[in-house]
Every structure is written in structure tokens, then in C-alpha cells.
Amino acid sequence: MASKRLVVDVHTHLYLPRYASLLRERTTLPKIITRTRDDGRKDERLVILKDEPSGGRPIGPSYVERDEKLTFMKNHGIDISIVSTANPWLDFLQPKEAHRLSLQLSDDLEEYCSTGPTVTGTSMQLYGFGLLPIVSGISTESLLEAVRQISASSHLKGLIMGTRGVGKGLDDEALDPIWAAISEAGLTVFLHPHYGISEESWGEKNNGHVLPLALGFPMETTIATTRLILSGVFDRFPSLRLLLAHSGGALPQLSSRLASCIDHDPIVASRLKHDARFYLGKLYLDAVCYGPEELGFVSDIIARSNRYETSSKNVASGGRSSGSGRMLFGTDHPFFPPLSSSERWKSVVENLDAIENVQGWTEADKNGVKGGNAISLFNL
Ligand code: URA
Ligand code: ZN
């Protein structure tokens, strides 16, 4: 399969029917509410963010129905999708329910992926990222059981995870057995934001969802990944595979500043085996940043990490190879639909065009980001 030029979407979401039913039953966040419009028609809305503007976002079959996902894939030339439950996963549940649902939802997702596409005339394939019951108070054994189940599911290639961990974030040593099990199983962690940053930053103007989604989400990913780097997780688990949503947020732009702050901090300076910039080359990043200049910049920053492979800081050697090999196309479907109906979504076309137009990327780089890198990483 690797010789064909396939397009693979690694950032594409759903709410499985079991999860959507749970959200419909709830009266507190997160929830799905039904509104009756002026014309009498019913309208479901997804309310998952704190202080969600406009009473939530419209939610339709594209969030739940597999045929909708496949039609979307067909309309955008996507051959393979690695589908993940959308935020906020199981974060709001008590440990017992989170544990039970994580196992059921990973089973549901395996079935969703393995029972075959139903759009005629196509050979599209579905894979998935499972879920861990990663909530406060959960036992390590319950988390390990969920890792084992995902690992035993042939269509699940990793797991999607938020940034809260078991209550103290992802730099919590309590998660070490989980990182060990995930690494050992060869699974990839898709790190995805949900909480953003304090809403006080957004002021009083009604800017819709723009500030939390454009800035809050990527900053959350930036902070969580930086804390992971600072905690030495990548020194303890060098084979841990982490895929960052939204091209790693601001981390590429801030990585030299981070390295400098570490070097000048007496508490942290000698903690890590490598210069902070080294760890960026250990990450995988989706290519969901909507512009060719940003993609080119991020790949240059990843490529630069090979200059920092030794523990002596600022080793200024090493060739300039493209970091595109660690970047993977994504759509964030079904979020960001066009405001007026259109078969091809602007949010997707922009990301595909961005890949095509990165200065200095070869055809091989572009094909890698569109699909080849995912095929290798996930052994598809
Ligand atoms: N993309 C997501 O994955 N989740 C959101 O809530 C919004 C955009
Ligand atoms: Zn997403």
C-alpha cells in the first residue's frame, strides 16, 4: 500500500452513538441540547466549552454517522481516516463510569472502523484512536487495562488524550506506568486540547469562538507539551510517540526561548539530558495550521532538532533536512464546516493547499505529509 499516493487524515473526530446519547441525557456541561426554532423545527446544539458562545454549536449527523464521515472523505479525496472521539472525552465522569465507557467506546470504535465503508465505488479505510479513562481517582490498573484493550484492537492505532491527566496534568509521575505501557505497545498518543486558557484573557467583546479556538486551544497544547518536556518524560521514555494537535501550537515558535529560560534557571538547568530544542524532533505534529509559511516554519524547527542531539548545548552542526517527515495531514472534521453549504470545506482545502505550497518542500515531502508519513507511523 505504501507505494500508492494515499491521503490520510489523522485529525478527524466523531461522537460515537453511545457517547452522543450520554451527552443528550446530561443537564450540565458537556451536553447536547435540543432547541425548537421559530419555524418549529428542532435543532441540536453541542455545549462543551465553558461560557460557550451562541448557546453552543450546531451539531448534526456529521458528528455521529459513519456514512457522513465517508462522504466527507470522498468529497475531499481522503483515502484513510484515523478517527478519534472529540473533546471532552471522559474527563467529566467519575472513575468507575469512565473506566466502563472507555472500554465500551474503544470496542465501538473498533467496530466502526472494521465493519467496512459503505460509499460505493471507493476503497476508503477507517482506523481509530481509542480512549483512556484518564480522570482523577482512576487506578493505574484501569488505565493499563484500557491501553491493553486498544493495543489488542487491530484498527486502533493509538489513543487520544487531553491535558488534565489524572488531575495534575501530564507531567505527573503517576502517569509513568502509562507512558511505559503505551511506548511498549507502540501506540501513538494524539494530544488534543479542550480547556484552552483562562477566559479572563478574552475580554468582554463577543468574538464568538474565535479566541478560545484560535489561541486558547493551541496554547493549552503548548503548555502541556512544555510541561512534559520539563518533566523529563522524553528522557525516561525515549520511544514515546506523541502527535500534537494544531501543529504543536506555539511551541515551535517559542522553543529557543524555552531552551534559554531552562539554561538560565537554577532549578531546571541540569534536569534534562538534552537542549529543549532536541525534544521537538521527537514529536509528531499534525499539519492543521492553514498556511504554507507556518508549515514550512514548523518543519524547519523540527529539522533543526538534530543539531541538539548531544547533551552539550548549542552544538552547531548537522545538515538542514526537512522536518516534514514528522508532519501529518488532518482536517479537524466535523468542526469548522463552511458557513454556507459547500461540498468541499474551506478549512480542508486550505490545509491541502498549504501543503502543496510550502517553499522548498519536494514532491516527496508533500506526499509524505499528505499520507506517506501516517502510513509509516501507523503501519497502515
Ligand atoms: N476542534 C475540536 O477538535 N474541538 C472543538 O471543540 C473545536 C474544534
Ligand atoms: Zn480536533
Describe this structure in words.
The protein is an alpha/beta fold. It has one domain: Alpha-Beta Barrel (TIM Barrel), CATH 3.20.20. The protein contains twelve helices and eleven strands. It has helices at residues 17-25, 66-75, 95-114, 140-151, 176-185, 210-230, 233-236, 251-263, 276-280, 292-304, 346-356, 363-377; strands at 8-14, 31-36, 42-47, 57-58, 80-85, 125-131, 156-161, 188-191, 241-244, 284-286, 327-328. The strands form two sheets. An eight-stranded parallel beta sheet has the order 1-5-6-7-8-9-10-11. A three-stranded antiparallel beta sheet has the order 2-3-4, covered by helices on one side. Bound molecules: uracil (URA) and zinc ion. Uracil binds next to loops. It comes from Lentinula detonsa. GO terms for molecular function: carboxy-lyase activity; hydrolase activity. InterPro entries: ACMSD (IPR032465), Amidohydro-rel (IPR006680), Metal_Hydrolase (IPR032466).
What is the structure about, briefly put?
With 380 residues, the protein is α/β, with parallel strands linked by helices. The chain is built from 12 helices and 11 strands.
Q: What is the typical, i.e. mean, pLDDT?
A: 94
Order the strands across the largest sheet as they lie in space.
Answer: 1-5-6-7-8-9-10-11
Order of helices and strands: EHEEEHEHEHEHEHHEHHEHEHH
Within the CATH hierarchy, at the fold level, what is the topology?
TIM Barrel
- Distance between the amino and carboxyl termini: 8 Å
Radius of gyration: 20 Å
CATH architecture label name: Alpha-Beta Barrel
Q: Helix fraction?
A: 25-40%
Identify the bound ligands. uracil, zinc ion
Tell me the overall shape.
Answer: globular
Write down the domain tally: 1
Low-confidence stretches: 314-320
